[in-house]
Q: What sequence folds into this?
């Protein structure tokens, strides 16, 4: 092949990839119906509503009666309906979580089966609370590089069965939920425009769950019998530093300042963390989307659920720029700048719902606690 021909081919490839974006065409969430309030927690922990709210901003959280793949499936059905697509249009499923139903086979393949998405490749991603956002980066990169033309991105968690419900420091913080985005190759400048990913690996032990992984195999320990290492003050410092660093790096990539951002949708780990981040970025209260009072910290689901709710509440407008910083165990951090497309309303609504739940959130937690006691006896 002569040099002119090679140059022409290279230019075509560059033009092709430079014009390809992974636009967000659909969105959906699935929150289990059972609510666990602060007052419910006070029935078995030494705490009260004022103590929890003043320290975290949380009022209630959801407890799931089904496995995480089922939450993810319903969220995906809603995302597909919002995009006006079917499961057959999906070429990739990237499932971000730490609480997969199974490690082998992967959980994404179960979502594929539930959806009937026979054309989809499937993969799981675990970076703790940032898993949904790392999954978004993965799917976006695969669409931009031409590997696939469409993808479902999932952030979902059912953390309640693995929770140490005797530990007030962590038991008040976490809940269950799921969200999904449908991405599609587009020449329209939309989707993730820039992102930064990172990790404070040297500090990974300040947020860790003992009893949750293969190092505990064959140790006469029941899965779910966990002990949490959670050094709150250190986590606070790292969370603010990681998300601020991620935001600065991502803004710099686009030559943006915080004034170029229309809305910030942060990971909802603690209201004090969110307030500290907003101060570092010189943001007004109205510039930041907050739903922590409704759901607490849903780990991998948190940022994506907040993003979906921001869309649903019309806080995301046509062609607006949204900044999504997140932080999680590992200690991973991320920040994404998303440009939304022209359409901000769903094409259709999905009628798929979870099976009915016959228990309250408190009853579900009591069942988990009693099950652990039985396993110890």
A:
């Amino acid at each position: 092949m002569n040099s002119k021909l090679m140059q022409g081919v290279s230019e075509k490839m560059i033009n092709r990839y430079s014009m390809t974006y992974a636009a967000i065409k659909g969105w959906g969430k699935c929150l289990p119906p059972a609510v666990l309030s602060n007052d419910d927690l006070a029935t078995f922990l030494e705490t009260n509503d004022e103590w929890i709210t003043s320290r975290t901003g949380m009022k209630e959280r959801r407890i799931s009666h089904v496995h995480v793949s089922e939450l993810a499936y319903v969220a995906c059905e809603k995302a597909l309906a919002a995009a006006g697509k079917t499961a057959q249009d999906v070429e990739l499923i990237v499932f971000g979580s730490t609480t997969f139903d199974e490690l082998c086979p992967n959980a994404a393949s179960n979502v594929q089966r539930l959806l009937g998405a026979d054309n989809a490749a499937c993969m799981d991603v675990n970076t703790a609370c940032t898993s949904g956002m790392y999954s978004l980066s993965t799917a976006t990169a695969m669409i931009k590089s031409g590997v696939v033309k469409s993808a479902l991105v999932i952030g979902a968690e059912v953390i309640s069965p693995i929770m140490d419900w005797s530990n007030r420091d962590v038991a008040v913080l976490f809940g269950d939920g799921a969200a999904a985005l449908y991405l599609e190759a587009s020449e329209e400048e939309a989707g993730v425009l820039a992102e930064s990913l990172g990790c404070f690996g040297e500090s990974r032990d300040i947020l860790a769950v003992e009893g949750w992984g293969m190092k505990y195999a064959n140790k006469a320990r029941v899965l779910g019998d966990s002990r949490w290492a959670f050094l709150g003050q250190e986590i606070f410092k790292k969370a603010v530093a990681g998300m601020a660093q991620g935001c600065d790096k991502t803004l710099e990539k686009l030559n943006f300042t915080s004034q170029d951002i229309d809305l910030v949708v942060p990971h909802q780990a603690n209201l004090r963390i969110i307030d500290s981040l907003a101060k570092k970025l010189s943001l007004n209260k109205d510039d930041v989307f907050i739903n922590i009072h409704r759901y607490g910290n849903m780990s991998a689901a948190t940022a994506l659920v907040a993003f979906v709710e921001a869309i649903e509440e019309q806080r995301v407008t046509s062609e607006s720029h949204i900044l999504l910083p997140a932080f999680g165990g590992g200690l991973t951090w991320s920040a994404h700048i998303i440009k939304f497309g022209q359409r901000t309303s769903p094409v259709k609504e999905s009628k798929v719902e979870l099976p009915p739940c016959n228990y309250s959130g408190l009853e579900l937690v009591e069942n988990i606690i009693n099950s652990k006691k039985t396993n110890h006896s």
About this structure: The two ends are 75 Å apart (CA to CA). The first strand starts at residue 21 and ends at 30. The first helix runs from residue 3 to 18. The chain has twelve helices and 13 strands.
